[in-house]
Amino acid sequence: MAMASVVADIVLVVDSDGIVRDLTTNTDAAIAGDARSWMGQPWIDTIAPDSRHKATALLSEATKGAASALREINHKGSDSQATIPIRYSAARGKAPGNVVIVGRDLSALSGLQQQLVKAQQAMERDYARLRAAETRYRALFQMTREPILIAEIGSRKVVEANPAAIDALAPPSGRVVGRALPQLFDDKGATEIEGLLSRSAGGQASVTVKVASAANGREFEATASLFRNEGATLVLLRLVPLAETTVGASASGSARYLDLIEKLPDGFVVTDLEGNVVEANPAFLELVQLATIEQARGHQLGEWLGRLGIDFPTLTSTLRDFGSVRNFSTIVRGSFGVTETVEVSAVLVEASDFPCYGFVIRATARPLPATGGKNQLLPRSVDQFTELVGRVSLKELVRETTDIIERLCIEAALEMTQDNRATAAELLGLSRQSLYLKMRRFGIMDDPALDTD
User: Fold this and answer.
1) 378 lies in which domain range?
2) Does 234 map to a domain?
């Protein structure tokens, strides 16, 4: 018994009636505190119902003198919601009918497995979000009517081209991908492209050159943007047909790619450099609860996008400094008071007769949860709480601060203790009864039967 206790977390002796007659435990094991009450009790009564058939088989094998197989058995803990997993083996004891049972505490391993599952689930959610974002931007890349090429900056070889680029630049062979960029243009255009790429690599932004297709002589204005992907430096070459570069500052006039933006499922907005709406698609009008584009034109996009006086100036300032923004989390305020959480990706276009901002606004799947009644906008997390600044009065926010912090602390304690409520109550300095009452109040536990010590 003493030697077995050195290598095991729990060793116990059970007589022929299944009563625990002797036991010793490792004081560091999770089962140590509960095991002290087992002496003189039927061992089977300490085991969770789903594991009792395993315990019966373990005792039966040992009683017959056979070497029992290892079995993982769950014991009932002090908290009725938690179990303690132990891996047992058993052998027949010296006294007639006695069985010696040796166990190893698996609580630490179980905790690691749970953390691994949570990490895997988080990775899968991130991967799904990345795939969704890639699908959206690839659809935009394919649908735009402007020729767009992506090439390696070192070799100058085209690695990707949208259908518009293939249609505008394809030689008789019909192949664009894999060819060197300068080969797609006439002699003068090839020289201009080389100079454009060199200046872009040197850090010069917003440079525009005029080029002509070697296949059909069509003329374009070309701009280049560098970016990194998987350790390689690539260049995105945008070609604007000269016949389409006459976009003026007036909101009325040419369509400005209406065929594209009309079909996008996400909101698409073009503004001038002052932030005034020039063009928008139906998806954006639906987000801001407007009936026609005329109700939006000439108005500041910040009237609907972001918290008043905060998000939109920050967004445009970042665009002026860096040229683009991705997945900027903010809100959209509808004309009739409806608020929706969105993500914004935007770009600054300067290399044209009409410098402008372009915004893609996507509604996210994370609406603010309702708590009922007049407090239906009150948050359930600190992030959502800060998002309400500018939409809910300071007096109302301050009134709810105590409840929010209290709920967050209870949820954190339950997470830290793997939902062991007795330990969570001790961690918070509360009685178990007080913890249950607060959990019911915040909707964390709805079972009244658990409100007793």
Assistant:
1) 373-450
2) yes
- Among the residues of 163-267, which ranges form H helices? 163-169, 187-201, 258-263
Which residues of 308-437 form beta strands (DSSP E)? 324-333, 339-349, 356-363
Tens of pLDDT, residue by residue over 272-305, are 998 999 888 888 988 888 888 888 888 999 889 8
Residue count of the chain, please give it.
453
Q: Where are the beta strands (DSSP E) in 158-218?
A: 158-161, 208-212
| Both structure tokens of 103 | 């166990």
CA distance 119 to 104: 26
361 Cβ contact list (under 8 Å, min separation 6): 266, 267, 268, 269, 284, 287, 305, 332, 342, 343, 344
416 and 350 co-located in one domain: no
H runs (alpha helix) in 8-73:
32-35, 52-63
DSSP 213: B
Q: Which residue has the tokens 């606004």?
A: 361
Amino acid at position 79, single letter: D
Structure tokens at 303: 């009237």
State CA 446 to chain mean position distance: 28
Which residues neighbour 292 within 8 Å (Cβ) at sequence distance 6 or greater? 285
Q: Which residues pair with 224 in a beta bridge?
A: 237
Edge to edge, the sheet with strand 277-280 lists 277-280, 267-271, 356-363, 339-349, 324-333
| 393: in domain | yes
pTM check: above 0.85: no
Q: What is the DSSP code (8-state) at residue 445?
A: -
